[in-house]
Amino acid sequence: MPIYEFECGHCGEKFELLLGVRHDPKEIRCPKCRATKARRLMSTFSSAGGSHVPGSSCASGGST
Ligand SMILES: [Zn+2]
Question: Which domain holds residue 39?
Fold first, then answer.
């Protein structure tokens, strides 16, 4: 399950949440000030534009 990073638009607190397929940004509360103005941050590893190995994600797959 993916972990998303959020930044509170009220106090600037950054926090991570583990979200499933169903998630509503309006229901996400800042753990510090309880505001519901959190916005999702982009993944830092993808914006780096570094290592991109095709097929490597299949290494740990399989349920045989
Ligand atoms: Zn906050």
Answer: 3-44
**What is the CA(14)–ligand 1 centre distance, in A?**
8
pLDDT tens per residue, range 33-59: 999 999 988 765 544 455 555 665 655
- Indicate the number of domains in the chain: 1
Cα(35) to centroid(ligand 1), Å: 5
Q: Which residues pair with 4 in a beta bridge?
A: 17
pTM equals: 0.58
Structure tokens at 63: 């349920």
CATH number of the structural domain spanning residue 21: 2.20.28
